[in-house]
Design brief:
Elements lengths: L3 H6 L15 E2 L10 H13 L9 H21 L6 E4 L2 H12 L8 E5 L5 H13 L2 E5 L13 H4 L4 E7 L12 H9 L3 E5 L11 H4 L3 E5 L9 E5 L1 H4 L25 H17 L8 H28 L4 E4 L10 E8 L2 E2 L2 H9 L3 E2 L2 E2 L4 H6 L7 E5 L6 H17 L1
Parallel strand pairs: 1-12, 3-4, 3-5, 5-6, 6-7
Antiparallel strand pairs: 2-8, 7-8, 9-10, 10-11, 10-14, 13-14
Length: about 425
């Protein structure tokens, strides 16, 4: 059985009151997860006892090398690829900019790339700026009329023989919509284009398999799921073997290491190893089984819990006329992430004021555009933005109920 009360005991931040003694209610999951104590402990243990750089022959240096190898293997199990297809960086955004600049070297004027209107702009600006540098045309997959998903009927008119790359996110960090990737990879690969996937939001809620997805590049970010800040990138052999690397000359030319810029955060790598072990334990499969098998089981168990949160949230929305909900209301094909505004006297209540009202009660209910710029453009919310609720595996049905009680109070009082 999924014991959420027990799970919560492993996160010290979930029971840490603010200066007024109020316990936190964290509804800002897509902004980043709390870290389980066991993860922080292992990170601290690395820093206390083994802090070193790569290449050291003494004990700490050897442990650091082992950590680096293990982190790559663990990330490979997480993404279902060989360790040699994974490299690390500061965060997903910096890896996206690094990848785009390197990959774009072979693009020429007259080529085009296809980006997505549902994406967080890390995965838009990085490719767009690289395209501008190379004089390459940028095309965008539009959103459906209601702004809830990508309109894939536009694909045939967007992808052609000169398309070099299609970049799309696996799930929206604001609407929670999951992308149907198969038609996109099929159309892109038919013309030899690379497919880049932003899985930063999706991988917190679904077991990602780069082989099943048939993508060429994929990005994840460890702090979203409960490790420290660490960018993770998968590339298949075709993309990994770049024409020329943006690297320090004496640094290794070995792959995948040649993609890693400067000294990496071995403490963050330690946290990823520990987090994936923590996550794998949620699935209840014996530790003797391969990490990938255990992670797959864990995602199923977490997914069932999150489905109950999705159901409870959508039921609550259904009962309230004052909620203007953006995105689709099906429980399927979505993560537990939702965008909405509150309406009073026919007007949107300023979401920043709502966030502040909740913030004063130590409740994290953020507002803004969350860098999903094309989504707010489509919904005509560039000035206003929206509120975003995003649940993680440690949120509870009681918290969903508490949120709605407070939303009722907030609408009545502002
Ligand atoms: C979908 C998505 N992509 C990319 C990013 C950027 O990730 P990072 O903060 O690791 O640079 C975020 C961060 O919120 C995100 O939600």
């Amino acid at each position: 059985m999924y014991d959420v009360a027990h799970i919560r005991q492993g996160f010290l931040g979930l029971s840490k009151p603010d200066e007024h003694g109020q316990l936190p209610l964290l509804l800002d999951g897509p902004g980043g997860s709390q870290l389980p104590k066991v993860v922080v402990d292992q990170m601290a243990n690395y820093l206390y006892h083994f802090n070193s750089n790569l290449g050291g022959a003494a004990h700490a240096g050897r442990v650091t090398q082992e950590t680096n190898d293990k982190a790559r293997q663990a990330a490979g199990a997480w993404l279902n690829c060989p360790a040699s297809s994974v490299f690390f960086g500061l965060n997903a955004t910096s890896l996206m900019f690094h990848a785009s600049r390197t990959i774009a070297q072979t693009w020429q004027a007259g080529d085009n790339i296809v980006l997505s209107s549902i994406d967080h702009f890390s995965h838009v600006s990085s490719w767009q700026l690289a395209a501008e540098d190379r004089g390459v045309q940028v095309r965008k997959i539009p959103l459906t009329a209601d702004g809830s998903a990508l309109d894939l009927s536009a694909l045939p008119s967007l992808i052609d023989e000169r398309t070099r790359l299609v970049a799309v996110s696996l799930a929206s960090n604001v609407l929670g919509t999951k992308t149907k990737l198969a038609p996109i990879t099929k159309a892109a690969h038919a013309v030899g284009a690379i497919v880049s996937v932003d899985a930063v939001h999706a991988i917190v809620h679904e077991c990602v398999d780069v082989q099943a997805l048939d993508c060429d590049v994929l990005f994840a970010s460890a702090y979203k799921i409960g490790a420290a800040r660490l960018g993770v990138c998968y590339m298949n052999e075709r993309v990994l073997a770049a024409e020329r690397f943006y690297k320090v000359e004496p640094a290794t030319n070995m792959l995948p290491n040649a993609w890693e810029q400067g000294t990496q955060s071995f403490e963050a790598q330690t946290s990823l190893i520990a987090l994936l072990e923590y996550w794998a334990n949620l699935g209840g499969v014996p530790a003797s089984e391969p990490l990938r098998t255990r992670l797959m089981a864990a995602y199923q168990v977490v997914g069932a819990h999150e489905l109950s949160l999705i159901q409870a949230f959508l039921d609550g929305v259904q009962k309230r006329d004052y909620i203007r909900f953006y995105g689709h209301k099906d429980t399927a094909n979505r993560t537990p992430t939702f965008a909405f505004n509150l309406i009073k006297d026919g007007q949107i209540i300023d979401p920043k004021a709502v966030s502040a009202w909740f913030g004063a009660k130590n409740i994290a209910l953020p507002s803004g555009n969350f860098y999903a710029l094309d989504v707010v453009r489509k919904l005509d919310l560039v000035e206003t933005g929206f509120l975003r609720v995003g649940f993680l595996h440690y949120n509870t049905i009681d918290e969903v109920a508490r949120l709605f009680a407070l939303l009722d109070e907030c609408v009545a009082s502002v």
